[in-house]
Design brief:
Oligomer: single chain
Structural class: alpha+beta
Organism: Cajanus cajan
Protein name: Retrovirus-related Pol polyprotein from transposon TNT 1-94
Largest sheet: 4 strands, mixed
Radius of gyration: 18 Å
Helix content: 25-40%
Pfam family, one: RVT_2
Shape: elongated
Order of helices and strands: HEEEEHEEH
Number of helices: 3
Strand order of the largest sheet: 1-6-5-2
InterPro entries: RVT_2
Length: about 140
């Protein structure tokens, strides 16, 4: 969990701020060694607006693999570590500081999320938007 928290800090996933009045918190949870937001408590239109992101169909993957094989091509793969943590959030989402990782002197502050976090409903969409912009900027699309 220490490695996960270091990654979150390095990525500037949140900043600690006093909790504004009337704002509902999204609570964190730990799943294995990952910090996960309890996205099931999010309300549409308040905590998120869009969640759609495209997904490759299995048929498309099979056609691609068949073409690679038939044309004697090579195939590479890419794994983006902590991918969801790179999507910028468009909404203001506040989360409690994770248990065991309270910042000294700011124990009463909460995390204002600046980047997506596992478990948020919009995390996949925000990652896709960031990846799509990257691909377009290098003329891959």
């Amino acid at each position: 969990m220490d490695e996960e928290m270091q990654s979150l800090k390095k990525n500037q996933t949140w900043e600690l701020v006093p909790l504004p009045r009337g704002v509902k918190l999204v609570e964190p949870s730990k799943f294995k060694a990952r910090l996960v937001a309890k996205g099931f408590s999010q309300k549409e239109g308040i905590d998120y607006h869009e969640v759609f992101s495209p997904v490759v169909k299995h048929k498309t993957i099979r056609v691609l693999l068949a073409m690679v094989s038939a044309l004697d091509m090579e195939l590479e793969k890419l794994d983006m570590k902590t991918a969801f943590l790179h999507g910028n959030l468009e909404e203001q989402i506040y989360m409690s500081q994770p248990d065991g990782f309270l910042e000294v002197g700011k124990e009463n502050h909460v995390c204002l999320l600046k980047k997506s976090l596992y478990g948020l409903k919009q995390s996949l969409r925000q990652w896709y938007k960031r990846f799509d912009a990257f691909m377009i900027s290098y003329n891959f699309v």
